[in-house]
Amino acid sequence: MPHSTHSSSASAHFRPHAEAAGCRLEGRASPLLAALLSLLAIAAAFAVLASEMPAVAAWPLALAALAHGAWLAWRETRVAPGEFVIPGVAGTRTTVDGKPVEDLSVRWRGPIAFLRWRDADGVWRRHVFFPDTLPAARRRELRLAAPGPAPARGAASVAP
Fold it and tell me: Over the stretch 11-43, which tens digit does the pLDDT of each residue have?
């Protein structure tokens, strides 16, 4: 047809081997997560004080909730920056700060990514990528490069 549009331009940006593309991410502390943890600590303290708990028990519990929330927020601000390299190619190892890691898993809760891995010493580590530290384009790269979910066990999960 002489007047039809050429359809190949729509697929010009399609990468047929997206799983082969790797992902390099810079991990850093999330100010948004630290602020939300602080806000939750304050809300927890107010919730305890607003409950019908006797004041003798409510005040220490409210202070404990506030202190624990403040500690969690402080710990989040102290997260060391790191570099995550997820190759996206089977047989190639993922590295964190240049060191190979085992058993990398990525879990998603909306725009928040939770990375979990085992380092060379066998210690489980984690990192949370909040939207303020991982923009939408980088989240897409991570989704494409991240390993898929573990396969189901071989045994039947229902009665025969």
Answer: 444 344 444 467 888 989 999 999 999 999 999
Q: DSSP string of 1-35?
A: -TTSPPGGGGGTT--TTGGG--EEEEE---HHHHH
The answer for residues whose C-beta is within 8 angstroms of residue 65's C-beta and 6 or more apart is: 41, 44, 45, 48
pLDDT of residue 155: 65
Query: Whole-angstrom Cα distance, residue 141 to residue 22?
Result: 8
What is the distance of C-alpha 17 from the center of its chain?
24
43 near 66, Cβ under 8 Å?
A: no
Contact 25, 134 (CB under 8 A): yes
For residue 94, the model assigns a pLDDT of: 86
Model pTM above 0.90: no
